[in-house]
Amino acid sequence: MNSIGSPSDPFRIAIVGSGPSGFYATEALFKSGLHIQVDMYERLPVPYGLVRSGVAPDHPKLKQVIQVYAGIAETPGFRFFGNVTIGRDISVQMLQSVYDATIYTCGAESDRRLGILGEDLPGSHTATEFVGWYNGHPDYRDRVFDLSHETAVIFGQGNVAADVSRILAKTRDELKNTDIAVHALEVLANSRIRNIHVVGRRGPVQAKFTSKELKEFGELEQAVPVVDPAELQLNPASNIELADKNNTGTRKVYELFSEFAGGNNNAPGKRRVYFSFLKGPVEFTGNGRVEKVRFERNVLSGDAFQQSAQGTAEFIEIETGIVFRSIGYRGKPLAGLPFDEKRGLIPNRDGRIIDGDTVLPYQYVAGWIKRGPTGIIGTNRADSVATVASLLSDLQQSGKTRTVNSKTDPLQLLSTAGIKIVTYQDWQKIDQLEISRGLSVDKPREKFTRVNEILQLLE
Ligand code: NAP
């Protein structure tokens, strides 16, 4: 065992995942004042996770946080190992053998399921696929979305559903100067969709949109929001929720729905975004692809803030050519680590990974894989800081000793595995190339969307 945490032998920490929680965890480690080296692993050859491939292209301000992450990445002691998949190229056990501690910040990479008939018919997509596609995520680059029908249906009323429906509602002119992937811009520009139904299983007071996102539907060039005033009638429990003093955000959302309900939505030629409530999807039907969605009308039951949707055995149908399921993300298991199937995350106590009652030594989680897919980008900062506090306390209590193989530089693991690593300097080169490609078409960047294409740039 060696004494560690000195300039010549810093603590060695691996971070798995390069989204917001990975960078906030790195920042917290560097701010600890200890001598620490951070190696950040990312399965894609590009960093920033959902800030790059989740945040909508027409929300550039949300992406400015990348400048903060770039600052963190330039801190001495930081290394980026892109194009490395933990659990495939390098095992969890290998990481354990060369790092003093590992923090998994790998997010929630899959989706909840509705569990209804026809869910997997062609034409039924997850929001994740569509968002990844228009944002140039290599996994979704070649997905095909048929926008030739006049009607699209989106399930779920969270901010991801808002992003998907807004992108469907926008014109080419509204999108062309964003960093939207060019392949998506071309398809969206030729979209025939006119009616976009954004459907919630509960009521307008339970919708999870934030008011800032919802407000944008009143500001679109060629689309109008539509709400049926009758659907804004509330039951007593929802009135209690709305009146709650801590529920300012919900009140703003409800006010916006009321404005939309009173607005003029007869403007000819405009696309319509219908927000509708208390409808639970029960089945998708169609001959070889989705043609119809069948909903059951719901009522709410239960106490205020705990109301759930109950079917009424009254059904309605909407004809459609495409549906998007936007009902929340879900974490994926990682070989070698425990997984809570029910909640879709890695079980943990204060960020320490647990297997039953056993704490796995020096193995941590932060972000969506720790707490589930909730909150905005900034929410991950406090979450990562809390995990790092657990880690630092454990390291210090262990008397700064090490049982891992301090002689093996993790880079040796990677070269033995024959992986082409993308370093942070490589990413800076890709970044500059994307920005200059974008300049020529008046976009902030034109992303490279294939892994091979990116790796070739670095040869
Ligand atoms: P979300 O906010 O949790 O919304 C999920 C929606 O799906 C809810 O309306 C939920 O309804 C519904 N749902 C869940 N299960 C369902 C089912 N079985 N059938 C029908 N509907 C169902 O999730 P999200 O939209 O994926 O967003 C994830 C997180 O990212 C959120 O915290 C969000 O605010 C954040 N985000 C932020 C931004 C931004 O700041 N601009 C953009 C995108 C995402 P119930 O309430 O009834 O469960």
What does this structure look like?
This protein is α/β, with parallel strands linked by helices. The protein is built from 17 helices and 20 strands. It has a seven-stranded mixed beta sheet, with helices on both faces. Strands 7-15-8-9-11-10 form a six-stranded parallel beta sheet. A three-stranded antiparallel beta sheet has the order 12-13-14, with no helix packed on it. The longest helix has 19 residues, at 379-397. The two termini are 40 Å apart. The site of NADP nicotinamide-adenine-dinucleotide phosphate (NAP) has 25 residues, from α7.
Low-confidence stretches: none
- Major sheet size, sense and barrel closure: 7 strands, mixed
Strand arrangement in the largest pleated sheet: 4-3-2-5-19-18-17
Overall body shape: globular
Q: Please identify the structural class as seen in this structure.
A: alpha/beta
Q: How many angstroms does the end-to-end distance come to?
A: 40 Å
Structure described in brief:
Helices cover 32% and strands 22% of the residues. It is an alpha/beta fold and 459 residues long.
Question: What are the SSEs and their pairings?
Answer:
Layout lengths: L1 E2 L7 E6 L3 H11 L5 E7 L6 H5 L6 H4 L1 H9 L4 E5 L9 H7 L2 E4 L5 E2 L12 E3 H8 L16 E5 L3 H11 L2 H4 L6 H8 L5 E5 L11 H5 L7 E4 L9 H8 L4 H15 L8 E6 L2 E7 L6 E10 L6 E12 L2 E4 L3 E2 L17 E2 L2 E4 L2 E8 L2 H4 L7 H19 L3 E2 L7 H7 L7 H16 L11 H7 L2
Parallel strand pairs: 2-3, 2-5, 3-4, 5-19, 7-15, 8-9, 8-15, 9-11, 10-11
Antiparallel strand pairs: 1-20, 6-16, 12-13, 13-14, 17-18, 18-19
Helix pairs in contact: 1-14
The site of NADP nicotinamide-adenine-dinucleotide phosphate has 25 residues, from helix 7.
